[in-house]
User: Fold these one by one.
Assistant:
Number 1:
Amino acid sequence: MNNIHVRTKVNGDEVDFLCDPRETLLDCLRDKLHLTGSKEGCGTGDCGACSVVLEGRLVCACLVLGVEVEGQTVDTVEGIAQGQDLHPLQEKFIKYAALQCGICTPGILMATKNLLERNPNPTETEVRYWLAGNLCRCTGYDKIIRAIMDTAADMREAG
Amino acid sequence: MKYHSPDSFHAAAEISANAPGSTRFLAGGTDVLVQLRSDIFTPDNLIDIKNIEGAKAINRSANGDWNIGAAVSGAEMNENEELKSEWPGIVEAVDLIGSTQIQGRATLVGNLCNGSPAADTVPALIAADASVAVQSPNGERIMKVADVPRSPGKTNFQKGDVVKNVIVPAKKNKSSDAYLRFIPRTEMDIAVVGCGVWLQLSADGFIVSARISLGAVAPTVFKVDSAADILIGKQLDDDTLHKLAATASAACNPITDRRGTVEYRTHIAGVLAERTAKIAYQRAGV
């Protein structure tokens, strides 16, 4: 077997797994670490359903190999709530019904959280461009955008 | 598939030259992994260059030239304000590629090595007179970006070659660049036509030096010397712009596909040449 031992940090926890070099980070998160929040939509980096944050940078987990994350830091949607306390974005997505089937939601939450950490006061246009790689086939995006703009305003007020 | 993570470009070149079977280099992976996952191509050896010292660095040589490492992502270039102010055209070409997620991984060198005639950064790099530092098992050499593309999907690199970094010259006085592409959407598409322009002006605003490059209108990205020559000694008056557009269109040799016909691409190439030249001219004059 060509399996490679990978040590990494996921949502703050040290973890390790064995993987074939062809397996993607998405495969490893879902099948080895049982973190199934990240979804596989297209598998070719077009839809953003597998968006995670690797070393602070938003990426598609389907376009990263498991072996590449040796020694790196990965953040997934499972890490954004604090115990039972949902992240403000999650609260607003529920309030605005900014999801229907929910497949795109983990990726959109990760992408948006990363945006608001970089830019707490984005314009609607900036939000829409930032999310150009996150496809939603249910909502038509409007509720998603409104939920995000409202969250950003609340988070700025809360400082 | 065997995964390699060498610690020097020389070691990467040795693996590429000597490992049995096929090899691919991995930096951002936004093309290599798509081919792997779609069962289009799985190499016997995958050589990850990201852990090589300097591969993720943007720095400047003593003479002011920029060195952009082979594994530097589009997002990292876009966050470098000094690079952006000296070479806005190159950075805007990078920024047009893919989504935020793709920007976090995709590289300038990957865009070049992929050999696509529609690659966004290649016209901008050719207009900037950029080069690449190429490591092979026998040593290192410098190659002009304009000499890299060979045919759709093919480059003039040899087996065992690995690109270490792109070299972009230091900005010259009263010069600037610009890149525009045409796509039918506002985001996330492949160029129907791409155009890179670099201009240098005299103190009184006449063009003293120019380079123009077109993408997606021929089997490779190419430099259009005939169009650049039109601009020398001129300001961008209407007559000059019309001649520029006609010359750029005349240099095209495109195909018809679902993104555009031969006639459409040929026409748009002229329109983009005019518009891109205007932006570069305005920037150079500042």
Number 2:
Amino acid sequence: MSTILEAKNINKYFRDPVLFHALKNISFDITKGEFVSIMGKSGCGKSTLLYILSTMDTDYDGELYIDGELTSGKTNDELAFIRNKHIGFVFQFHYLLPEFTVLENVMLPAKKLGEKSIEEIEYDAIEKLKLLHIDDQALKLASRISGGQKQRVSIARALINSPSIIMGDEPTGNLDSKNAENVFNIFQELSHQQNLSLLIVTHDEEFANKTDRIITMEDGHII
Amino acid sequence: MNSFRIILGISKIHLISRIKQTSIAALGVTFGISAFIILMGFMNGLNGLLDGLILNRTPHIHVYNDIKPSENQPIAYFKDVSETFNVVHSVKPKQTQKKIHNAQPLINYLNQTPKVKGAIPQVSAQGFYISGNQQLNGMITGINALAEANLFNFDNYITEGSVIDLNNNINGILLGIGVAKKMSLRIGDRVQIANIKGEIIPLKIVGFFQSGLAEIDNTQSYVNVKTAQRILAESESYITDINVKLHNIEDAVAMSKFIANEFGLTAIDIKTANAQFETGTSVRNLISYAVSITLLLVAGFGIYNILNMMIYEKMNDIAILKATGFSGNDVKRIFISQAVIIGIVGGVLGLIIGYLVSRLIDNIPFETEAIPNITTYPVVYNYIHYIIAMLFAMISTFIAGYLPAQKAKNIDPVEIIRGQ
């Protein structure tokens, strides 16, 4: 089993308003196809950890490897490329670009990556939308679809560049139980059928219990 | 290249989805640019007109034989008293002739000098216009009419008749409009000229001219060089003035000094003669630039404001773009390109509107006594103004966009995403 993501001795301090040791010596790894959830109370540092793992937060000590590549200390442009190619994001709030159509939203990261022609990207995007059963909404503006649909679109967007890992920050937190169930099933399918790694921060115990592994955090430690 | 297209695509959608704000920002630029074009065109037109009023009809160098006292009085040549303080009373002008000695060879020499566009002779004579028992003071200048028209736009001031009529009629006279009115003369009439010696020469009126300066129009008239020589009863070599036009007006000072030194004549260059004129031109230019730049600065602030607001509205979009792999520089380029697109669209529109309004002004009737050949307001269409305007539109919008874009670049996506 190859390791997709590896964290070594990650420490994070918040200096404002007072010095606060938010993450203390976090080390763990995620292998290919593993579906991992991070749980913990509010303020335990689980979101902070996720944003460090996502490479968006670079202000930390320690080492982070994604796909075997050390990301610590890389420039912002290099990190943007890594996020683009290797990481897919799903947030609690759907975060689509409201003035763009669903299809354009899904295509955008692939266009940025620029490895395929526009036609290929469009084909891929429609495939991903089909996978999530919202291809009928493809040409609607992103601001015109329901919350559950938006979340599925953002999953499709996360998948478009065939990333190594999908990260989610409470992706079901804002959804009713039926939609939450739906999203979980989609994640599980991706994990099992496409051998995709997933790392999901959640409050939802029911959700977490169904994942392969639960990382529980408390006061900046992994328990 | 590819990423540039995506960025432009995103900018386009941002701009179109906020078409109201976008068009207000672009209209700000349009307003500034068109005002610049109109102002510069109009101001330069007026400048040209005023320059034309003086500069075009004024020789760059006027050469004549001035009547003045000797610079060194005889006492200065006595060595015995050179150390003393000498006072000479009642100094009289040096006895000299009014004509320029050896004028024709000098004209030929000047005409062969590369810097000189043309040098033409004039003969100025004093006389009286006689009408019944009235005598009017007159200045009669003998000119080479065709060359005058060619070099000094003499024909612009002829209201009736033409330079050719004068050139073809050895007994013709081109009368100042003021003189003609006083004496109720028409073309074809005869006017009698009395010279200082009292001899009367009848001449035929071939036309009228109007300089716009009443003083001149009331006394001046033009005849052919030979006619003037005849009025003065002088030979054909009698030339009192030489007017020189240069290719480049900037050479006037040096050239006039050279002529004065080399030939012992008085040579007045146009800059000395009309020094106040150039100052007026440059001040007017300065004013038009200052006003236009102020307008463009205001437009620039408009763009800055709108982009700043846009960035606050687009915080989420910026966070998403960064999370999905767009770098800070990509985000920066998105906002700069929006500013530049606003600049280009607003600028081009401004050029078009500026041009159309200039055209409109160009067709408004404007008639003035001073300049008989002008019928509408003068407007200059100088492509350099259009280039400057466009460059300024691009640069000012770029700067106005750069600061907010830099802000967008530095937005931390984590803060936005977690802040919700």
